[in-house]
Amino acid sequence: MYLNVNEAYSKFNSDLARNEKNDCVVRSLAVASGSNYETAHTFCKEEFGRTDKRGTDNLNIVTQMLKYSESGLKIGDKVLDVEILPKARIKNVYKLRGEIIERQKTITSFIKDNPKGRYIVMVAKHALTIIDGEVFDWNGNKFKPTRKVQSAYKIEHKSNNSNQLNLFQNV
Asked: In the prediction, which pLDDT does 168 show?
């Protein structure tokens, strides 16, 4: 089985993106948040301590995402809620010969169990985005559906309920 990969991840119309490497977190964040590449690049540099062309340290990502899960994430003009998925959501549990075994979900099983929503998914030394079951990643990774999910973050645009309150205040 191959993954159906959306190429928006690899085709940013940006000189910065064309000249960058090791930028999977930047691309994943841009796609998941609906931001442009430059905004996501600046955000990763300032918030995650990313060094140009060197990638992003996973410990910095985990630490910052923990903070954003409490306070929300603001990238450019977008305000997002972040939910760190618990281990139970990224592991499969099997019973084998009476013994319970936990294994990391593959990308395929993660999509099956999470068909709706926006997720930044971390696999071994790589990040990708899944939106409503569609994978946003490098096209060459469509042949790797069994990569193990190490962590995942659900990203949602914050709803602005103040408009609803204003509607009733004018009555």
From this structure: 52
